[in-house]
């Protein structure tokens, strides 16, 4: 197994020189840890070369306290460090001048999961904007893309469908690290940006090949398996079908009280999707959709993660549900992630195209073919920002 050194560890190895004598704000969450599981806030508070003056937390809070989507949290004062903790998922999502008035350098140490719907990359985007507007330097500490940096999948977000799950035209499964995304975003923003690269990471690596400890970056991302499947089953957040929130296997299970698990598993297995099998199952969510109700559906078993295509799989699930339960399945209505008018499925997928294809009963192969041009274009775009070999 490889030994990967994250941006946080590389910053420590370099004796934190870029932070020397500076007032530091840290954008972090529960997974912002080093190899020994020391949190980035502890590392920076103890470094002695700079002065940690504030913490900033994204969706789900600094420690992963808030469970579900659209559960806001408020800032507070960290009792141990004696510094303010600012919420970037509440009344504001972009740091304000007041939050930044005592900050010279913003350090960003966030573990992403490789899908554009995961909001931490958009917190990064807004942090870069705020830093540029307020004359604050940004240092992004890189971390692995847990599902690898080679494969790309899905479409991008059209301008009229931008939201907090897609503020710019990033591919659904983007194949970039968070520092590479920072470089891409900063072409437009022009902040004073420095990235701290990892050592030892290759694009072909999955997280369990890095030698790093897995800490859930959000409460419903408990395992690498959940992160592997997430780019597909996150589409179900745009429906009245459960994506497994409120169970021990979020994003690995899906279903509803009106689903026949045996039938839907068989229909999905008949698609012969690469790298995956479906097993009928039952579950009772303890929160979120169908709280306390018995649901039937399927569990997604990834049998070959290198050939598995999560977005195609998620689309196949939508296709099967609409084919089998036209009188039961529905698109979720707004609001969703601060979008009050557009349908959640449209902002998750980046346009109304996928929704219309599903409603029209288009063949799965034709739906998949419709996003291949966007994959090619994004592949050419991202090539300018790649920092690691395959």
Verbal overview:
With about 400 residues, this protein is an alpha/beta fold. It contains twelve helices and ten strands. The protein has a seven-stranded mixed beta sheet with strand order 3-4-2-1-5-6-7, with helices on both faces. Strand 5 (about 105-110), helix 4 and strand 6 form a beta-alpha-beta unit. Helix 4 (about 120-135) crosses helix 5 (about 180-190) and helix 6 packs across helix 8 (about 310-325). It is globular, with a radius of gyration of 21 Å. The mean pLDDT is about 95.
Global geometry = globular
* Poorly predicted runs: none
Distance between the termini: 16 Å
SSE series: HEHEEEHEHEHEHEHEEHHHHH
Question: Tally of extended strands?
Answer: 10
Spatial strand sequence of the major β-sheet: 3-4-2-1-5-6-7
Structural class: alpha/beta
Amount of helix: 25-40%
Please state the average pLDDT score: 96
Percentage of residues in strands: 5-15%
Oligomer: single chain
Number of helices: 12
Give the radius of gyration.
21 Å
Biggest sheet, in brief?
A: 7 strands, mixed
Labels describing this entry:
single chain; 390 residues; alpha/beta; 7-stranded mixed sheet; 3-stranded antiparallel sheet; 12 helices; 10 strands; 28% helix; globular
Concise structural overview:
This protein has 390 residues and is of the alpha/beta class.
């Amino acid at each position: 197994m490889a030994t990967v050194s994250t941006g946080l560890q590389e910053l420590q190895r370099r004796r934190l020189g870029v932070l020397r004598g500076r007032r530091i704000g840290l954008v972090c969450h529960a997974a912002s840890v080093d190899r020994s599981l020391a949190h980035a806030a502890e590392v920076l508070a103890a470094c002695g070369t700079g002065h940690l003056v504030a913490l900033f937390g994204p969706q789900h809070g600094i420690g992963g306290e808030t469970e579900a989507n659209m559960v806001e949290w408020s800032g507070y004062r960290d009792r141990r460090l004696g510094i303010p903790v600012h919420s970037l998922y509440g009344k504001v999502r972009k740091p304000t001048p007041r939050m930044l008035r005592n900050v010279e350098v913003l350090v960003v140490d966030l573990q992403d999961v490789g899908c554009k719907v995961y909001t931490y990359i958009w917190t990064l985007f807004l942090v870069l904007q705020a830093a540029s507007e307020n004359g604050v330097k940004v240092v992004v500490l890189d971390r692995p893309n847990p599902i690898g940096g080679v494969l790309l999948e899905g479409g991008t977000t059209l301008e009229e469908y931008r939201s907090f799950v897609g503020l710019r035209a990033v591919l659904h499964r983007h194949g970039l690290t968070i520092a590479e995304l920072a470089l891409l975003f900063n072409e437009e923003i022009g902040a004073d940006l420095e990235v701290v690269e990892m050592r030892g990471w290759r694009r072909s690596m999955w997280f369990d090949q890095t030698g790093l400890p897995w800490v859930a970056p959000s409460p419903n991302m408990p395992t690498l398996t959940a992160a592997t499947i997430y780019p597909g089953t996150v589409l179900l957040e745009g429906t009245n079908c459960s994506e497994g929130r409120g169970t021990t296997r979020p994003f690995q299970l899906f279903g509803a009280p009106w689903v026949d698990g045996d039938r839907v598993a068989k229909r999905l297995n008949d698609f012969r999707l690469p790298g995956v099998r479906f097993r009928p199952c039952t579950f009772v969510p303890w929160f979120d959709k169908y709280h306390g109700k018995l649901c039937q559906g399927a569990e997604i078993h990834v049998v070959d993660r290198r050939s598995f295509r999560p977005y195609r799989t998620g689309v196949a699930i939508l296709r099967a549900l609409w084919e089998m339960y036209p009188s039961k399945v529905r698109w979720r209505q707004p609001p969703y992630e601060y979008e009050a008018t557009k349908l959640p499925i449209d902002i998750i997928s980046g346009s109304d195209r996928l929704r219309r294809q599903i409603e029209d009963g288009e063949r799965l192969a034709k739906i998949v073919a419709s996003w291949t041009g966007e994959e090619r274009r994004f592949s050419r775009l991202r090539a300018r920002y790649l920092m690691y070999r395959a």
